[in-house]
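Our example copied in:
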Amino acid sequence: MRKLFSSKGKRKVNKHGGTDKNRSPVSRLRKYIIPACIITVCAGLIGAGLWWIFIYESEDAAARNEYDELREIFMSPPEPVEQPSDNIEQEPEEEIEEEDSGIIEEEAEIVERLSMDELARINPDLTGWISIEDHIEYPVVRGTNNDRYMSITFSGERNRAGAIFMDFRNRNGFDDKIAILFGHRTRDGTMFSPLVNYLDRSFLQENPIITITTRDGEELTYRIFSARLTDAWDTSYELSFSNPDRAASSFPNVPPGASRFLLLSTCTPSSDRDERIIVIAALEE
């Protein structure tokens, strides 16, 4: 039998026997508004996450660019200005050859001082430069506390990468019995991130040398003899200034005759915010 009425005009009947029009406000809220709110919140969270990723990536890139420029200054300092000589007489060729090594060393010291002077004009808190070949190349600063350079770069920009900084208690700089340097472990593997590799003995054996160029252009060579996991309350931090001899006596495997030390510190990939990696080196005298 042919249908006499079209179904177009019929209202939908819900499972309770009522129509959509007769639904209560609570039912309509559950069906439409709550899912829309969930979708909106999820979209907001995703957007916020992408925004923070963008911010992190931008900060990382800014820090890398800044320190690349500083390395350029340190490794390619301005040429020393030659002073005109009043003595027009030429020294004998043999004497020049004998003095060649001394002249080269003197010129190298001048170049180091020029690079330090150039960096000090950017930041007067400069106290030196740390080099671990192929892994770490950064200027070192010392502030009036240990908080400033946690989130401020060498050039004074606010950035999570911060700077490599000396413990503010090191009033005599690298002349102290124990000099402590801090740096972040970053997402992009820069700053003091490579220190985690020293927990691998083979890496330590292949990369044992730390070179420090002081603010005055003096070059100091340290040899790493220990690396370990510890925490923020390690006696190496607390006793190094009130009783440096006691602190040094707690170092494992101290080389015979070692009298001055360099301690590098950074955080770890662990979820424990108090966990630290320390790398300890002795000055080669």
About this structure: Residues 89 and 186 are 58 Å apart (CA to CA). Strands lie at 126-132, 136-141, 164-166, 178-182, 209-214, 219-231, 261-267, 275-283.
